[in-house]
Design a protein that fits this description.
With about 350 residues, this protein is an alpha+beta fold. It has three domains: about 170 residues, no CATH class; about 80 residues, no CATH class; about 80 residues, no CATH class. The protein is about 30% helix and about 15% strand. The chain has a five-stranded antiparallel beta sheet with strand order 1-6-4-3-2. Strands 11-12-13-15-14 form a five-stranded mixed beta sheet. The protein is globular and about 70 Å long.
């Protein structure tokens, strides 16, 4: 397809224009059922750095070989960008309807052996399902059911799924273990991380703490057009894109926010799922939504058993708690208490990409 070849030639800094010689995009689409890109060239690309051009092209999608992608626990990356895959070549499928059905699925990870074949061509994008459908013929494109369940648990469906949220929830997999900011259509930016010391209260939620590392660094706040002093939990909710901060630092910020609430309240708040959603990082939200279908609201940051071990979520009447530490197992308990690790319970609920 001439369009993607032209785009890739431009991204690679080629001085020679790839000829469109007999481009048969529409004819090929009709014959094969594979998606053809809708042309959306822009003068804005002229003179832009190669990395910026690549980031913008990835919003609508480019065609690559699967072997060009880097596989991580949560899915794929292409030159540092989290991406979805769609429209894979399928020369082995002779039936046009089957080929079209295969090409119209959007995948989050290599859910079949066909998506592990390095020589197979496919389209990738870093935006969302609506942009893919608007930018390509051959649709409508829909998420692969197996990929959805692997990312969002059993019973997940397309209407409630967002790729950016998936990237945010799986930041430990997509990004290096350093604070950074990413959004579709732009290169990721390194950040300094949480601020040392405490600088007043959060201008968004009003929480405050004497501890360090619960607020966004002032320089990072200016870079992301956020108010100075904003807490990490508000920052990840307010920013346009994906703010990656380590899970341990986000949980420390959540403890600070909840501790501040307890200090200001006349009495401890009653457990509720809305409270849990407000107090915990965004990466915990999919698990919270699944648990509330099965269990009553939990206590938060609850000291359990004789050792006062702190569970992020706890049900005292059941002597059960959810802890974050990924190295621990369910068999480890404290008196009558038994604990799930977050990884363990997510796995049991079908979250296979965490």
């Amino acid at each position: 397809m001439a369009l993607w070849k032209q785009a890739l030639a431009k991204l690679r800094g080629s001085g020679d224009e790839v000829p469109a010689a007999g481009d048969t995009g529409a004819t090929e689409e009709a014959a094969t059922g594979e998606p053809a890109a809708v042309e959306h060239e822009s003068d804005e690309s002229a003179g832009a750095p190669v990395a910026d051009v690549l980031a913008r092209e990835l919003e609508a999608g480019i065609q690559v070989s699967i072997g060009d992608l880097q596989t991580c626990r949560a899915g794929w990356r292409y030159r540092g960008h989290p991406v979805m895959l769609f429209g894979p070549d399928a020369p082995e499928l002779n039936d046009p309807k089957r080929r079209r059905a295969f090409a119209s699925r959007v995948h989050l990870h290599p859910c079949s052996s066909a998506l592990e074949e390095e020589q197979r061509g496919a389209w990738i994008a870093s935006s969302d399902l609506a942009t893919i459908n608007a930018s390509h013929d051959g649709g409508p494109f829909t998420f692969c059911g197996d990929c959805l369940q692997a990312a969002a648990g059993q019973g997940a469906s397309t209407p409630g799924f967002d790729f950016l949220s998936h990237v945010r929830n799986c930041g430990d997999s997509y990004f290096a273990k350093k604070p950074q900011y990413w959004q579709a259509g732009a290169e990721s930016r390194p950040l300094q991380g949480p601020a040392d010391g405490s600088r007043g209260s959060c201008p968004k939620c009003g929480c405050a703490a004497e501890a360090s590392h619960w607020q966004l660094n002032a320089d990072d706040a200016r870079l992301l057009s956020l108010p100075e002093g904003i807490c990490l939990l508000c920052a990840e909710r307010q920013v346009q894109g994906c703010l990656y901060i380590s899970e341990a630092e986000l949980l420390d910020a959540a403890r600070a926010r909840y501790g501040d609430l307890l200090q200001k309240a006349a009495k401890a708040p009653a457990p509720s799922w809305k409270l849990a959603e407000a107090m915990l990082p965004l990466g915990w939200q999919p698990l919270l939504r699944r648990l509330q279908r099965m269990l009553p609201p939990p206590e938060l940051f609850y000291s359990c058993g004789h050792s006062a071990r702190v569970a992020i979520l706890a049900w005292p009447d059941r002597a059960r708690g959810v802890i974050e530490h990924r190295g621990e197992t369910e068999s480890e308990g404290d008196g009558d208490w038994r604990f799930w690790t977050r990884t363990q319970i997510e796995s049991e609920l079908g979250f296979r990409l965490r």
